[in-house]
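Please, structure for the following, as tokens.
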Amino acid sequence: MGTILGVTIPAFLAILLGRALADRGFVPADFWSNIQRLSYFVFLPLLIVHTLATADFSEFQVVGLVLTIIVTLVAGGGAVWLWRRWSGERPEMTLSLGEGAVRANIPLGLAIAFALSGQAGLTLFVLATVVYLPTVVILGAYLSDHTQAELREAGLSPEPGPRQAQDSSEATTGATPGASTEANTTTSGEPSTVSGDGGAPPQTGPYAGGWEGTLRRALSVLIRDPIVIGAIVGIILNATGVGLASGLGGVIQMLGFAAIPAGLLATGAAIDIDKLRDAYEEFRGEIRIALILKLIAMPVIALVIGAIFGLGGITAATVILLAALPNVIPRFTAQAPDASQDLLLPGITAASTIAAFVSVPLALWILT
């Protein structure tokens, strides 16, 4: 436990530093949206390119890791769906709860993985990220399609009502206090868009073409995601044996590592206590179930699924860490917009980030 606390406490202290800097107005409010954009579009892709281009995958249980992550995320989405059906909540709650249960704060995971296991831990977590991202985008699109279809079958409008529309106009969807709504900053550093280009939301439901329409829309988002592009470049460089020249590789690695402190500071700056308080007053039950699913059930599911696929050691620890991380508000998503995400999802994100100060070390200590 001492080792785990020794690597997790500094990461969470960096998050607290970000919160303190934002509270004191140490930098202009739009700094946080700009640093997140720089991190997501430049630093993080470069880190992925360097890590994948120089990795020796023969050392890892790659197939088991890939299968475990996919099955774990699908199980998490399925758990949200079953709970929503059992509880009788309105269908649109599925979207925010689904994102709350399966999304993960990647910079925090990178920091902990690297501190715990060095370059091997970083490589495995980068590989896990490359599997995680397309899985959650496709899963989110699927949940969105079925939710919209269910709303229409029930004769309910998927559009926000008068009160919800007002809430939506006042919210900044997880933005750092003082940042512009247009920037739409989030703790993940992902640009928030449904279509991937800021255009009109894609059509959802059966009329969108079933699974084909869901996959087509998800892929249209993923091909523009800088993380996916970085992963493709890194894998090609590795597979072809081209690799990276030592000088160029060193610069790329140095810039890539900047994604970790930038992401941690921005995570803290994005914690909105006022929005958390408002969300908890209106969605108390939903936030509680989201925290149980995200911080308790998901790492346990990852442990069980990993054991089924024969994972052990550092590989098992990687999938458990990914599952145990607090959620983030997505930027690249194929979901249709929903009014509950203006308050409920930011509330879940803030609550899970704060609770993760305790839950993540405990999950790593008990399950690894």
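The chain is about 70% helix and 0% strand. Residues 2-367 form a domain with the Na+/H+ antiporter like fold fold (CATH 1.20.1530).
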